[in-house]
């Protein structure tokens, strides 16, 4: 902080605080966005994995496998971009990548376990309601993240608005 006196007035100058604060706030926002996106993707991957693991018809397994492959690919690209922009530490990046990598197989294992002798009936009213609620929750998280946290900042960019 520099202080200068001119004709009885004191002027205070601060150096580099505005840019640092703004940059720090933006970095924190990006880190939170990447972590919330990770949560949404993890929940979504487990749910799709459970659906795939519980499926007993090849007609259901084929499209679910295709959907899971595309979901994992594009969600991985999106999440990787967010993590990169958030400048996460190496340890955090490895942890997030590990969670992303194991959740779909974990869901498949849960689905296989549920469908093979635990009294799980996929067509039961309870199973349909639980699956619907979990799907709705994960879809809501993903839609919110894509619209509010990923797309909105791009549309608010002054270069795009001019």
From TrEMBL:
<comment type="similarity">
    <text>Belongs to the ZIP transporter (TC 2.A.5) family.</text>
</comment>
<dbReference type="GO" id="GO:0005886">
    <property type="term" value="C:plasma membrane"/>
</dbReference>
<feature type="transmembrane region" description="Helical">
    <location>
        <begin position="93"/>
        <end position="112"/>
    </location>
</feature>
<dbReference type="GO" id="GO:0005385">
    <property type="term" value="F:zinc ion transmembrane transporter activity"/>
</dbReference>
<feature type="region of interest" description="Disordered">
    <location>
        <begin position="1"/>
        <end position="23"/>
    </location>
</feature>
<feature type="transmembrane region" description="Helical">
    <location>
        <begin position="36"/>
        <end position="58"/>
    </location>
</feature>
<keyword id="KW-0472">Membrane</keyword>
<dbReference type="InterPro" id="IPR003689">
    <property type="entry name" value="ZIP"/>
</dbReference>
<dbReference type="Pfam" id="PF02535">
    <property type="entry name" value="Zip"/>
</dbReference>
<keyword id="KW-1133">Transmembrane helix</keyword>
<feature type="compositionally biased region" description="Basic residues">
    <location>
        <begin position="9"/>
        <end position="21"/>
    </location>
</feature>
<dbReference type="InterPro" id="IPR004698">
    <property type="entry name" value="Zn/Fe_permease_fun/pln"/>
</dbReference>
<protein>
    <submittedName>
        <fullName>Zinc transporter ZIP1</fullName>
    </submittedName>
</protein>
<feature type="transmembrane region" description="Helical">
    <location>
        <begin position="132"/>
        <end position="152"/>
    </location>
</feature>
<keyword id="KW-0406">Ion transport</keyword>
<keyword id="KW-0812">Transmembrane</keyword>
<keyword id="KW-0813">Transport</keyword>
